[in-house]
Amino acid sequence: MTHQTIEILFITLGILMLILIYKxxxxxxxxxRVVHDDFCTLFSLEKNPASGIVEFYFTTPVTQQIEFxxxxxxxxxxxxxxxxxxxGGQIVRFDTRDLKxxxxxxxxxxxxxKTIKKFRIEN
Length: 123
Description:
- Strands 4-3-6-7 form a four-stranded antiparallel sheet, with no helix packed on it. It has a three-stranded antiparallel sheet with strand order 1-2-5, with no helix packed on it.
- The radius of gyration is 26 Å and the shape is rod-shaped.
- The protein has two domains: 1-33; 36-121, Macroglobulin (MG2) domain (Immunoglobulin-like, Sandwich), CATH 2.60.40.1930.
- The protein is α+β, with helices and mostly antiparallel strands.
- The chain has one helix at 3-30, and strands at residues 41-42, 53-60, 64-71, 77-85, 88-95, 102-109, 114-121.
């Protein structure tokens, strides 16, 4: 082997090492980072304070298992929907007359998120 061939091999080896180190650093930096692609979007109620039958609306970018709940001030959960939903917009209907007047939170729980919003019930 000539001296020039050995230099080319060392330069190539150095470039490959730099690429591997760069990929390792990128992987370490992206660990623990939240991927928002699968997050549902939860919308506020159109009418707040709520009374009677209300429609909670959310969208999901993928088919996934969800749990849709209402929590009272003591953080007791009333599950309105717990099932796999298809990609797209979803409506969950609920009769607020089943609960006492007051401030509540409603929200959606998936494998990757928990999103909640406040609302008031005045029947």
